[in-house]
Amino acid sequence: MSKFISVEEINIWKEGIDLVKIIYEVVKRSQLFKDYSLRDQIQKSAISIPSNVAEGYERESNREFVRFLYIAKGSCGELRTQAFIAMEIGCITKNDYTRIDSKSRKISGMIMNLIKKLRTAKTIKP
Questions:
Q1: How far apart are CA 33 and CA 89, in angstroms?
Q2: pLDDT, tens digit, for every residue of 51-86?
Q3: What's the pTM?
Q4: What own/partner pairs with CB < 8 Å and gap ≥ 24 does 78-82 have?
Q5: Is 9-120 a domain of CATH 2.30.40.10?
Q6: Where are the chain's structural domains?
Q7: What is the DSSP string of 39-95?
């Protein structure tokens, strides 16, 4: 099991930050900018992913880290649903939806792989 020295070393966290950037880019140039409620939900879901990875990591126990990783994984599904709704009502393009969907599914898979590793590991820090 790899040992992380800081949350910034965790690829899931990095990918989550990249996803947040994608969301903000899409919001700036789409109809989502005008739909405050859906825009805020989508941004919050995206921000929740790396935030929960960081919070779980800072708890310094595998059990707590896994718990927060599951929350981050749930946020991936929430984000995909909100992005699908945004596409269906014409706020974002199918291409933007596909980018968001693909990235969030990738992150979700990475989270599940880390959860499996953490369940068998004794420590996450050196």
A1: 14
A2: 999 999 999 899 999 999 999 999 999 999 999 999
A3: 0.91
A4: 78/45, 78/48, 79/19, 79/23, 79/42, 79/45, 79/46, 79/49, 79/104, 80/104, 80/105, 82/38, 82/41, 82/42, 82/45
A5: no
A6: 9-120
A7: HHHHHHHHHHHHHHHHHHHHTTSHHHHHHHHHHHHHHHHHHHHHHHHHHHTTSS-HH
Closest CA to 100 of 85, 89, 115: 85
Q: Residue for token digits 């909100």?
A: 82
Q: Are 68 and 53 in contact (CB under 8 A)?
A: yes
